[in-house]
Amino acid sequence: MTARTPRRTLRLPSRLPVDGYVLALLGTVGLAALLPASGAAAQVAEGASTGAVALLFFLYGARLSTREALDGLRHWRLHLTVLGATFLLFPLLGLAARGLVPGVLTPQLYSGFLFLCLVPSTIQSSIAFTSIARGNVPAAICAGSFSSLAGIVLTPLLAALLLGNSAGGLSADALLKIVLQLLVPFLAGQLLRRWVGGFLVRHKKVLGYVDRGSILLVVYTAFSQGMVAGIWHLVTPARLGALLAVEAVLLAVMLALTWYGAGRLGFDRADRIAIQFAGSKKSLAAGLPMASVLFGPQASLAVLPLMLFHQMQLMVCAVLAKRRSRDPEPAGTPPTGAAPGAVTAPGTASTGP
Questions:
Q1: Which is it for the CA torsion 138, 61, 343, 87, positive or negative?
Q2: Please, what's the b/e burial string for 287-309 (b: 16 or more CB within 10 A of its CB; e: otherwise)?
Q3: pLDDT tens digit string along 145-188?
Q4: Distance of CA 306 to the CA centre of its chain
């Protein structure tokens, strides 16, 4: 009697490659498609969204340590390199993609694609991937913080300059809206950080849910406006496939430019890793509320390229960080990691937006 061959069972991976928060964003988009806010409900949702954006930037300001940011200025060459990649190389590549309109990208999708090229870098995922790859974690923290801070001013200005009427132009009303919804709450957070900083640290997890819940509200409001305006008939599956292909090329080019460019500039391995992960990614958390302010009713199509790019960058950089972690350390290189007293450890930082 022959022994039975054990049947193979299909096992799901312990960790899905799709970020859970992206699934929540997609669920919010689905809710907006099925039950869009209209009439009086739309006015309430828009008012709540405006308040949520102001709250987000207040929390950004209250969390950013001015002292740590100033201490990080000693590594100014690295930070300028990351800022150059984020606010110079990315926009130039976005402008170059203008030749893909209308054959590959529609004008509306191109506006969103160009907007994603203007958004600041991430903080959490840059730190997480730099840590996993054994790069310069303190540099990644400072570079991400500087990029977010610069983006509050540079992203709206670049959007007004490069997108023109698509982002509402640079009228007095648009400038006032940017100042009141983005800059004033951020500065208020910085001024009140001395008194609210301890509270934010003690309730970090709860406030993280506030952050993400606020962004979900912004997404729901933007996509509801798009559904009511009937703009989604402009996006076909073929156009979405083309957009994904263009974004894949964009990410590959930026990963290559930041890695090899940093090498040509004389940075060591640890710094090159920080530059690559901080200089090649875009912040969904910062981009979504900015788009709601800059684009108004057209924000739903404007944020679609950013949402797709966010998930793509997480998946690709996760694989790349694991690969970098297996690289041999150069001879005589001291161990890299967090600065003295820091608590960041490989795998502990969030890879969220």
A1: negative
A2: bbbbbbbbbbbbbbbbbbbbbbb
A3: 788 888 888 998 898 888 876 555 545 565 676 677 777 887 88
A4: 8
CA angle 288, 196, 202 (to 5 degrees): 85
Q: 7: burial class by Cβ within 10 Å (0-12, 13-18, 19+)? A: exposed
Compute the distance between CA of residue 79 and CA of residue 149 in angstroms, rounded to an integer. 12
User: Angle at the Cα of 121 (from 117 to 126), degrees rounded to 5?
Assistant: 135
CA distance 175 to 197: 29
pLDDT at position 71: 58
∠55-58-60 over CA atoms, to 5°?
110
Nearest to 139 by CA among 336, 283, 282, 345: 336
**Phi-psi category of 141—alpha, beta or left, where left has phi over 0 and alpha has psi -120 to 50?**
alpha
Average pLDDT of the segment spanning 283-296 = 79
Residue type, 285: A
| Residue 342 in this model has a pLDDT that exceeds 60 | no
Q: What is the pLDDT of residues 76-119, one digit of tens each?
A: 899 999 999 999 999 999 999 999 988 899 888 899 999 999 99
Length of the chain: 353
pTM: 0.72
Instruction: Give the whole-angstrom CA distance, residue 212 versus residue 284.
Output: 10
CA 345 to chain centre: 21
Average pLDDT over residues 257-264: 96
